[in-house]
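A quick aside before the break. I want you to see a complete sequence-to-structure record at least once, exactly as it would be stored in a machine-readable document. Don't worry about memorizing anything.
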Amino acid sequence: MSEEIDLYSPLKKFFGFTKFKGLQEDVIKSILQKQDTFVVMPTGGGKSLCYQLPALMSEGTAIVISPLIALMKNQVDAIRGISENKGIAHVLNSSLNKTEVNQVKSDIANGVTKLLYVAPESLIKEEYVTFLQSQKISFVAIDEAHCISEWGHDFRPEYRNLRTIIKQIDNVPVIGLTATATEKVQEDILKTLGISDAKTFKASFNRPNLFYEVRPKTKDVDRDIIRFVKQYIGKSGIVYCLSRKKVEEIAQVLQVNGIKAVPYHAGLDAKTRVKHQDMFLMEDCDVVVATIAFGMGIDKPDVRYVIHHDIPKSLESYYQETGRAGRDGGEGYCLAFYSYKDIEKLEKFMASKPVAEQEIGHALLQEVVGYAETSMSRRKYILHYFGEEFDEVNGLGAEMDDNTKNPKKKHEAKDQVVQLLSVVRDTKEKYKAKDIVSTIVGKENAMLKSHKTPNQPFFGIGKEKDDAYWMALIRQVLVAGLLRKEIEQYGVIKLTQKGLDFINTPASFMMTEDHIYDEEHDASIITNAKGNSTGVDDKLMVMLKDLRKKIAKQSDVPPFAVFQDPSLEDMALKYPISLQDLSNVHGVGEGKARKFGREFVKLIANYVEENDILRPDDLVVKSTGVNSGLKLYIIQNTDRKLPLIDIANSKGLEMKELIKEMEAIIYSGTKLNIDYSLDDLLDEDQQEEIFDYFMEAETDKIQEALDEFDGDYDEEELRLMRIKFINDVAN
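That is the input. The structure line, written in tokens, reads:
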């Protein structure tokens, strides 16, 4: 039989295409020959056509198991669009009522339905299994097959039983499909589905049109995102956040700054989610800010950028989410913000999980850290993770990442590589990266002691370098293929033949110096963003301080009670020339602007005019008042004289967090009366003593007040008195 005619005419008839993409044709032949088949194909590679076409061409109904209701609905609508008969494709899940279920059964029994989409939870139901046993089934396709593996980034326990259920229904070919899977996950999928001898098709994971960049995450990350998005006005983008709360905040901050953005997360009701998804698809909005609940099965080809506000839990997630950009082959910019603090947060969340799951989670997170901190080609790093070699000189997309565009310094590390490889050999290839590093730098731990490693002559052989150096070297040596990670005991490092040869005949090894993403580094970036390099106007700053002193004198209050230094610095950066502008300045609310602002904006307006200054309006990232609900709650309940500890507890805050919120309220110029609380804490003389101190003080710094009173009052008492002081004299 002529395979060509058999495949190409149905392809044209059903889908209107004249040729196949990548591996599609070979996969479809394998399915039509009734072979178990396993397909690893990146997002955008045309995975669904691989099972849709053979289903339409075969006798009987193909069962497609998929984890997401939204995804099923999209695909069913698409298939119904190519046929006269609505019954050609159906969904069977918890969203159907009795009448709809009967209609589905009748269409299958009458041979109308070619594709039946089922959630794994529905397939477990006995009535469905019994019904399907009596029908003609062509094959079973399992989409998003990585959900089977505990090593996958989206593990679902109900997927583990699929093999048993499929066997109950019929002895038909099984097709597993996934868009992301490391070798470890692939092995797991084949084993769990019982299709170890399946014909495997693996497409390249390289998406040459995507540009990858990782930036350090600073306190100004919202501003960085707004600046980036404003370069793409009118184009579609996705911003991913890990928490629902952050999704709401970022969506709001984008809206306030004139960007058409909508939030999307599982906490919104279904109607709102569908509405926001449709707005994005129909281009009524430019940006969706989402948790990972969004995007599975969203087939929007012209997403121009994907931003990760928070780094994801695994490289698979990251690859899949960035893969939603540029599916039409056009520009796709993938920007991730990274701070090690976020990784620590994710590790804390894991603490409550079973130990085995924690180990897996930590291993996956370390890969993410490696990617974020590496200074080698990011494309090469990702592709290596998925078991694919990449030529960073001639490969497609070789120039498309920040590290390749701005190469980092390199140094010769031949001797260190020999030390590293020898330690792996001499510790009998039984350690994971962390323990290899501990051995090299000479740090004892229980694992090393149990193998008597600290007694060995090579223990501490590389202690002149720190842990981070050796960790970075291990990552680069792994990618270079001198070491490999064991698949069965995941994470254990083994030597390759290439590595053994290197020990015997060492060659040059140029190690790229890693970025250092630590707290000081982050802090220095913040300082630069706020400091003179981006233009706090020193001349204006002097004038503002003089004016502050004058107004403080007139009002008989210390200067800091008028505006704090950070507020003046922000004015000298943004040049606010109206009270409305002024209330967008750091630490200045409407109350403060009204009380002291007129003379300040007048001075700035004159200064701007005289010096012909171009005001950086675009730099003014308006604040959303995200916490305004909390602030209102605090104001209302202090008015009701509710004990502060009760206010804190009812909002799940520590006392010091509540005080911080109250300080923000008071410094922005709003009244807040906490006398009732202070009366329980300090007697009249004590209050007067602290009040007088602040009246005379040069600065409102708490540390200076603590030094002055030398243990008479604690920090909490002084901070509460400072709130009362500002409230009484400045607001």
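Two observations worth writing down. The mean pLDDT is 84. The first strand starts at residue 37 and ends at 40. We'll return to this after the break.
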